[in-house]
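User: Show me a protein chain along with its predicted structure.
Assistant: Here is one chain, sequence first, then structure tokens.
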Amino acid sequence: MKKVYLSIAQPSGKELAYISEAIDSNWITTAGPQITQFEKALESYLGTPKPVVTLSSGTAALHLALIDLRIEPGNEIICQDLTFVATINPVKYVRAIPVLVDSEKDTWNISPDLLEETITDRIKKTGKKPKAIIVVDLYGMPARLPEIIRIAANYEIPVIEDAAEGLGSYIEINQQQKFCSTFGDCGYLSFNGNKIITASTGGALICRDETHAANIRFLSGQAKDSAPHYQHSQLGYNYNLSNICAAVGLAQMEVLQKYVDRRREIHFRYRSELAGHPELEFQNEPAGYFSNYWLTCVLFPNEKLRDAVKKHLEMNQIESRPVWKPMHLQPLYENSPFFGTKFGEYLFTRGLCLPSSSILSDEDISNIAALINDCLENHE
């Protein structure tokens, strides 16, 4: 029986041509024309004047963003509680303190109401405002970004947008599409093998302006000073993207919108195929929001039923995964300040991510939905 994975890469068919071009021109290192072309393709797609710098991963992008914002040991950083651990780990890299904020029901992302409550609490208790806010576009769903940006601006706190799962997602503002990763002071993307498109690895930072982009490039290339010899006055990192990986990403950019459209088709097909069970809930788009539905997630009435469905899918060689475990429940972050109603825990105990690769056929989705329906009916 063929294994069905949660989310895997789909070649565009042009990767070898772009890789061959890079090799033939001898650009097989962390410099080359494919890197520049990939960055320009991203800027064009996002429709942003902000410069894009490609890097070795989304985690590297967040780490450098924090350094660029001059985050210091002991500074507090507000972080979305319901996310993958890579959103929080770079806060530890710079020895800052994550302050975790729960999700709201519409988008499953950081609650604007709780965000403001958290800011005022930290000012009252520490005498200082948090130094940054990291907000996530969970599973491709844009967060309540206009409200979040407005609150952050009131307190003059920079916002970093984690759009690792959100390439192709946007919010319509004044009849214009504003893409995820472009809302905050900076934002970042991931090109890991399980994302909408891949460069086999890699990420990108959408920078505030050219000055900040230049600093990111400087830091990511071991912070080499302008000198005729190797001279270093500042701590740097080996975070540059390979030109070969950029060649893969460049090929994937040509089919990005096709893959976004397909993931949305898959999401709505699941909804249709599972419509006989109104007790099931899905992540919904607020008015004016457009999710790439990187992963389709469904909520079951209870944890026992969710786990039964997961086991039934596993027995049929179909991968699924619970919704992210909130950070305040993780041993690494259980002692971090947490503000919330535990809605993220509700999602974690009931939510299941279903196979969502753009390579899946309609028949694949129907077969998966039939297994879920069968399991639900046998447990009624």
